[in-house]
Design brief:
248 residues; mainly alpha; 9 helices; binds zinc ion
């Protein structure tokens, strides 16, 4: 009596074998092969596979898994767009800079040659060693000390006239921003020095355009967004086919 009043539960939990069938079916969408791999006998696999697909709890488990899969594909496509966009907009100056820095005279006293502290000490010792008791010469400090090559050139410097010295500066690649990290493609020691390699920002821009469907790409290359769309279309067709089977 009580049993009859209880509302019919639309879905029973899957048995272990049914769950295995669902997992296997998602691999190649072959009901027969999935039944065999799930442990049903080869002789009855075709019949059981087809029957399994019509069971509501199995059908809905497959549908749920397929929906999740489609979602994952979309997320992957989104992530690819974001990543390529970041790479396309990364600033190469974060990796390598050509910059013009002050010359030795820009910040020297009276625009004379400026030393670093260590250079000044060394120059003084060399001078000192040459002195005799009768020397009347005074050590020439020239532009003084405190040279710092990070400072910008001075326009009023009579030596460089604001041009300074050209310098190539490579950043420490361990501390890059996420965008610069995407751009960085490694370092190569060549006979002419160090070469910083970068991924192509032009390619990244094209990739974004492709992923967003700005232009139709060649069939040979893979477009995750298009793949996701096709997968959803296939699933829709399968759902329709399932509906027809059940109605028949
Ligand atoms: Zn200068």
């Amino acid at each position: 009596m009580a049993k009859a009043k209880e509302p019919e539960r639309p879905e029973r939990p899957l048995t272990g074998k049914q769950a295995a069938f669902v997992a296997e079916y998602l691999i190649d969408m072959s009901a027969t092969q999935a039944a065999i791999r799930a442990g049903y006998s080869t002789r009855t696999a075709a019949a059981i596979g087809a029957e399994n697909l019509t069971k509501p709890q199995i059908a809905s488990a497959i549908q749920a898994a397929q929906a999740k899969r489609a979602e994952r594909l979309e997320i992957t496509a989104d992530a690819l767009v974001r990543q390529n966009w970041e790479l396309a907009n990364a600033d190469p100056n974060e990796l390598i800079q050509f910059r013009r820095v002050c010359c030795r005279h820009c910040y020297g006293i009276n625009f004379e040659y400026q030393f670093t502290h260590a250079e000044m000490t060394r120059a003084f010792r060399i001078w000192e060693a040459k002195q005799t008791k009768n020397s009347k010469e005074v050590f020439d400090r020239q532009g003084g000390e405190g040279f710092d090559r990070r400072k910008p050139p001075r326009d009023d410097c009579p030596e460089c006239n604001g041009m300074g010295d050209g310098e190539v500066f490579l950043h420490d690649t361990r501390n890059l921003s996420p965008a610069a990290r995407l751009l960085y493609a490694g370092v190569k020691q060549t006979k002419d020095g160090i070469e910083i390699k970068m991924h192509s920002q032009q390619d990244a821009r094209s990739e974004v355009a492709k992923l967003l469907g700005f232009y139709k790409e060649k069939e040979s290359s893979v477009d995750p967004a298009e793949v996701a769309r096709q997968v959803r279309e296939e699933m829709r067709k399968m759902d329709e086919a399932d509906g027809l089977d059940q109605a028949a």
